[in-house]
């Protein structure tokens, strides 16, 4: 091997290393700053891929909230070489004027051409653009999603509202946000040093996962019915507001939950705060006579009295702590049973006094008052129930007829449902199923919070409630052809700082058919002005809804057969 | 005699630095992947492969290179058979067949072929140097094996590797004293075949067009342009380990062929200078081992292995510096790739084994003043 030839190779290798070194010095030291700046101009963009928010549907699959895609078209200043030509072509699509297009194309960087059009319109635009010879790689498309509530206001308090960035703020939208929102994906785009952005399939990315669908226990037809009747009652008696709840006493499913007046979802309604709340679960009100079932149940179940015992003497008054309590009208001598039909406050005070405050308190708790029902909606209140240690004699005397205690409409509904179903205090549900695609990933189960013992007393109470509607204060709640059980409530309300100023809440709670209850219906009318008594305000509203439901029965039966 | 310590530690340095760079250039994948293990899978694999390769290097360096010489012919035949097999059952991206896949392990026979070809040529020369005047011997023991290996690699197609193997073979034949005119003729033939090959292969045509910024090139040298951006923006001191951004997206799979760009971006000129220095030391030591070797096989084998490394380093970096079209050559010891790393380290084992037997007492001049015959060593004179 000649030294000469080895030297040739040696020199070749050394010169190659030398060339590399010189080139490196040139690139890294002499031109380093230039390349550094150029490299800095290359931007990476991590773009979030928004998933489609899940639908909310009623129990029959009627859409109550859905998201649909909108498209926007954008361009990059540097994408388009011949801006005049491009602007003329865009103007030909009739979308925007030539001047506007030119202005947008000349503005440096990123520009929207049009925002938020539907899929079909976008398709037309693309077709026109292609027809007019605009190269489609000069334009970019951006997909967005809009939340649509295809109803007016009747579902707003249940469904709730969304924030600007598509997060639930209230209602189901808030409570089930994690299911509804899906999972965001992302993709990485790069800006090319010569301008423009693009993504390649081999760039890291994650596909978005669409949100789950929520199916409510609410039935749209019942919801509409209750809404329109509550609305009529509120308007007729010039009330501040009203709410209504229908619950299936056998399962705990809430079939309708209505607030009137209320806000409109999806428009950023600026209505007063009182109307933004779902008052059916958050309105703390003094229940009045509808609360008397607790007092009556306690006394009968404890066997302190029998239904036929004489309870109220002919004076019809009672004095507690030097405060005289009397009934709305004089009834004369009343038995235990009679005092319930005529809704005697004096009778209830006597029963509560016989029961003693500790026992009375335990019966209040037994029916679920003083704690949240646990319904799957946000913002539930638990009413106001003070500890019996802080009760004075007058306090529990008034609680006996539903004053000095506050409950929510949903609590009272659950309590009456327990009487309707023979003693099972159920957790109310408003979400029936959560579906991921076609797969059901959550199904509500019947949940019994506790069973109220003493079936016998419950049956007596049920009969008493039937009598109230048949011949007592609840006559206006009668439903043709059906046996109805229910109770009126007309209660004074205290305003913070003002005390009892004469404002009242008029309510009616009941269930039907009384033999095999399928519906518990609660009507609460807040501060009616043109009339006061529940027998006039709330009971007729109950009756109208009940009558309509009974005419809907073939439909209702069909619905129940499916459950 | 002991193995060459300088070479040994030099290899260790490059290896560890390389692993660090692999980890850094995988950064984006680790960052953006859902779980850490999945993202760093390639690094862990490379670490395991490096350990296996290191053990292979140690094992082979312990052997007597006479033993290695006995294995050259069978291993070379196996390598050629595997190269053939790749064309039939191989896998790869986009119709390109470069890999033999056995479950989780994939193997690139061209890596094995290039080193065994070098060893085969060295061993053939040691046996047949007297008969080199005979054209039949030249064809049978030299031109034909070279042509078969290059031909099979071209058919994969893998023009980059074929090009470097051609260059290595040419260098070997050149220092063996083959007639320059004959070699020139062979180069002409090879070039014309290569030209035809590039013209009929779309991806190769595109890359060449891209390099020369020809019209119709889809992405005008995009990869090498980004590579230059990366290296340049490292400036003198670099952006720091893990600080480079280019690798994340602009240089797809920077952890393979463009890892030098990551070194340049993150360690600046200091880093690239150190790296080139380390490779230069390797080449110098390799050539020294060749000079110190006891016989013509030892000389040619160590020389061949050294220039193989040198050429890969040179062309990989030239590509990264946009001085040569993108051909997909790994940076030895550093680029992710199991076959390449294990086989390169094994080749280092052979080099270290030869270094062990070298005669230190023999001065350079003594070595070259041995009897020559028309620029060619006479065989047999080296025995003992």
UniProtKB/TrEMBL annotation, chain A:
Give start and end of each Penicillin-binding protein transpeptidase domain.
242-545
Q: Where in the cell is it found?
A: Membrane
GO BP of this protein: cell wall organization
Chain ranges passing through the membrane:
7-26
Output a single Gene Ontology CC term carried by this record: plasma membrane
Name it: Penicillin-binding protein 2
Where in the numbering of this chain does the Penicillin-binding protein dimerisation domain appear?
50-197
Q: Which UniProt keywords apply?
A: Membrane, Transmembrane, Transmembrane helix
Q: Which Pfam family is one of those matched by this entry?
A: PBP_dimer
Q: What is its main location?
A: membrane
Source organism of the structure: candidate division TA06 bacterium
Q: What molecular functions are annotated in GO for this chain?
A: penicillin binding
TrEMBL record, chain B:
Cellular component aspect of the GO annotation: cell division site; plasma membrane
Give one GO term, molecular function aspect: lipid-linked peptidoglycan transporter activity
Q: What does the entry give for GO biological process?
A: cell division; peptidoglycan biosynthetic process; regulation of cell shape
Topology within the bilayer: Multi-pass membrane protein
UniProt keyword Transmembrane helix, yes or no: yes
Residues spanning the membrane? 7-31, 43-63, 75-96, 135-154, 161-178, 184-204, 225-246, 258-284, 296-321, 333-354
Family in the record: Belongs to the SEDS family. FtsW subfamily.
| Name used for this protein in its record | Probable peptidoglycan glycosyltransferase FtsW
**Which species expresses this protein natively?**
candidate division TA06 bacterium
């Amino acid at each position: 091997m000649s030294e000469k030839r080895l030297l040739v190779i040696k020199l070749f290798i050394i010169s190659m290393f030398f060339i590399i070194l010189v080139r490196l010095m040139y690139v890294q030291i002499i031109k380093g700053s230039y390349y550094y700046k150029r490299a800095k101009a290359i931007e990476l963009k991590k773009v979030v891929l928004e998933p489609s928010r899940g639908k909310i549907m009623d129990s029959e699959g009627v859409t109550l909230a859905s998201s649909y895609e909108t498209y926007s078209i954008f361009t990059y200043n540097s994408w388009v070489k011949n801006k005049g030509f491009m602007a003329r072509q865009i103007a030909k699509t009739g979308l925007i004027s030539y001047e506007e297009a030119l202005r947008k194309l000349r503005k440096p960087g990123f520009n929207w051409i049009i925002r938020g059009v539907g899929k079909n319109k976008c398709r037309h635009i693309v077709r026109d653009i292609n027809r007019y010879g605009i190269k489609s790689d000069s334009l970019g498309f951006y997909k967005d999603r809009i939340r649509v509530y295809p109803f007016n206001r009747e579902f707003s308090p249940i469904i709730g509202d969304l924030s600007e960035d598509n997060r639930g703020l209230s209602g189901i939208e808030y409570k089930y946000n994690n299911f509804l929102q899906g999972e965001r994906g992302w993709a990485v785009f790069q800006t090319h040093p010569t301008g423009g952005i693009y993504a390649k399939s081999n760039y890291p990315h994650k596909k978005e996962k669409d949100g789950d669908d929520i199916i409510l226990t609410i039935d749209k037809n019942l919801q509409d019915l209750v809404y329109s009747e509550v609305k009529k009652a509120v308007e007729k008696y010039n009330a501040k507001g009203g709410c209504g709840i229908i619950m299936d006493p056998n399962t705990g499913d809430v079939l309708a939950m209505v607030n009137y007046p209320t806000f409109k979802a999806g428009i950023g309604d600026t209505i007063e705060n009182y109307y933004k709340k779902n008052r059916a679960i958050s309105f703390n009100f003094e229940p009045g006579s509808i609360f008397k079932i607790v007092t009556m149940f306690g006394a009968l179940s404890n066997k302190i009295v029998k239904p036929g015992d004489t309870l109220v003497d002919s004076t019809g008054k009672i004095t507690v702590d030097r405060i005289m309590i009397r009934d709305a009208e004089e009834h004369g001598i009343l038995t235990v049973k009679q005092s319930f039909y005529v809704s005697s406050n004096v009778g209830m005070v006597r029963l509560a006094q016989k029961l003693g405050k500790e026992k009375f308190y335990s019966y209040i708790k037994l029916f679920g008052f003083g704690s949240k029902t646990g319904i799957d909606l946000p913002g539930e209140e638990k009413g106001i129930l003070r500890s019996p240690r802080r009760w004075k004699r007058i306090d529990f005397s008034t609680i006996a007829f539903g004053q000095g205690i506050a409950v929510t409409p949903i609590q009272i509904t659950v309590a009456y449902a327990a009487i309707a179903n023979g003693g099972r205090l159920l957790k109310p549900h408003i979400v029936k199923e959560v579906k991921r695609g076609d797969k059901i990933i959550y199904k509500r189960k019947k949940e019994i919070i506790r069973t109220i013992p003493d079936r016998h007393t419950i049956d007596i109470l049920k009969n008493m409630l039937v009598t109230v509607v048949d011949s007592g204060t609840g006559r206006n709640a009668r439903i043709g052809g059906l046996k109805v059980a229910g109770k009126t409530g007309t209660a004074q309300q205290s305003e913070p700082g003002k005390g009892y100023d004469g404002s009242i809440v008029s309510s009616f709670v009941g269930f039907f058919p009384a033999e095999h209850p399928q519906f518990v219906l609660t009507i609460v009318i807040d501060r009616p002005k043109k009339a006061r008594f529940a027998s006039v305000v709330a009971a007729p509203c109950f009756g109208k809804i009940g009558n309509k439901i009974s005419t809907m029965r073939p439909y209702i039966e069909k619905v129940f057969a499916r459950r | 005699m002991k193995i060459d310590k300088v070479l040994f530690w030099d290899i260790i340095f490059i290896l560890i630095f390389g692993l660090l760079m692999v980890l850094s250039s995988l950064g984006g994948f680790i960052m953006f992947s859902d779980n850490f293990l999945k993202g760093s899978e390639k690094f862990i694999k490379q670490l395991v492969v490096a350990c296996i390769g290191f053990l292979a290097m140690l094992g082979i360096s312990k052997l007597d290179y006479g033993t290695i010489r006995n294995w050259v012919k069978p291993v070379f035949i196996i390598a050629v058979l595997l190269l053939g097999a790749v064309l039939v059952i191989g896998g790869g991206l986009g119709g390109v067949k470069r890999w033999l896949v056995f479950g989780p392990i994939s193997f690139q026979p061209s890596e094995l072929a290039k080193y065994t070809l070098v060893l085969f040529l060295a061993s053939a020369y040691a046996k047949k140097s007297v008969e080199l005047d005979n054209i039949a011997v030249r064809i049978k023991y030299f031109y034909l094996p070279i042509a078969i290996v290059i031909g099979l690699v071209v058919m994969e197609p893998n023009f980059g590797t074929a090009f470097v193997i051609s260059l290595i073979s040419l260098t070997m034949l050149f220092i063996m004293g083959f007639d320059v005119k004959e070699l020139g003729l062979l180069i002409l033939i090879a070039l014309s075949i290569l030209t035809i090959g590039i013209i009929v292969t779309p991806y190769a045509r595109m890359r060449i067009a891209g390099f020369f910024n020809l019209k119709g090139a889809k992405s005008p040298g995009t990869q090498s342009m980004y590579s230059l951006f990366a290296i340049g923006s490292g400036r003198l001191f670099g952006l720091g380990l893990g600080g480079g951004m280019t690798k994340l997206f602009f240089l797809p799979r920077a952890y393979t062929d463009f890892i030098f760009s990551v070194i340049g971006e993150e360690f600046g000129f200091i880093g690239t200078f150190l790296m080139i220095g380390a490779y230069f030391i390797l080449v110098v030591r390799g050539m020294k081992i060749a000079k110190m070797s006891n016989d013509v096989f030892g000389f040619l084998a160590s020389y061949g292995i050294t220039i193989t490394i040198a050429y890969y380093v040179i062309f990989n970096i030239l590509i990264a510096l946009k001085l040569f079209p993108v051909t997909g050559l790994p940076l030895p010891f550093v680029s992710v790739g199991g076959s390449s790393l294990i086989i390169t380290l094994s080749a280092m084992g052979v080099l270290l084994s030869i270094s062990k037997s070298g005669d230190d007492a023999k001065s350079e001049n003594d070595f070259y003043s041995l009897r020559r015959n028309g620029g060619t060593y006479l065989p047999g004179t080296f025995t003992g």
